[in-house]
């Protein structure tokens, strides 16, 4: 059985991105501001993401929004930054 999943990343500016586990190891630069990742969390989807009762089992971390920058109409979100969780730092 092979590993399936992805990694969640945050840079020091709170930008979030994910990289599939099958991609190169060196792609750990923020696509928004080009800062290196300072937080990483591996999400293992090999055996699914949820138990039958809805309990999450894949290690995904729900991130807390720090700030949203909206466009002038107020409807669209241009940029979201997240608070960097304690632990699981790179």
Name some characteristics of this structure.
mainly beta, about 90 residues, 5 strands, globular
Topology:
Blueprint: E1 5-11, E2 16-20, E3 37-44, E4 65-70, E5 77-82
Antiparallel strand pairs: 1-2, 1-3, 4-5
Rg over CA atoms, rounded to whole Å, is 15 Å
Domain tally: 1
- Beta-strand portion reads 35-45%
Query: Any low-confidence stretches, pLDDT <50, length ≥5?
Result: none
Global shape: globular
Tell me the span between the first and last alpha carbons.
27 Å
Order of helical and strand elements: EEEEE
- Class by alpha and beta content: mainly beta
Q: Overall mean pLDDT score?
A: 88
DSSP helix count?
A: 0
**Largest sheet geometry:** 3 strands, antiparallel
Describe the structure.
With 90 residues, the chain is mainly beta. It has one domain (5-82). The protein has no helices and 5 strands. The strands form 2 sheets. A 3-stranded antiparallel beta sheet has the order 2-1-3, with no helix packed on it. Strand 4 and strand 5 form a beta hairpin. It is globular, with a radius of gyration of 15 Å.
Briefly characterize the structure:
With 90 residues, this protein is mainly beta.
